[in-house]
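Board notes (copied after class):
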Amino acid sequence: EMIRAGDTGLIVDTDDDAGLEAAIESLVADPDRRADMGRTARAHVLDAFALETEAAALTALYRELLDGTPT
């Protein structure tokens, strides 16, 4: 879920050379869209992987493992 199609990047099937070419060309042709995706992706990563977020998730996991109960 790192890449949200059309929002934080473009997703292309692994064996789709023509699709990859089209995706790259669309970003080359539209610098504003490319910049918007970059800003949105950066904000998403900073939010999703903030120290507080990661620490809370890790703490919840440790509690679940120690207590044997999901949080």
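Comment from the instructor: The helical segments are 17-29, 31-48, 51-67. Residues 48 and 60 are 16 Å apart (CA to CA).
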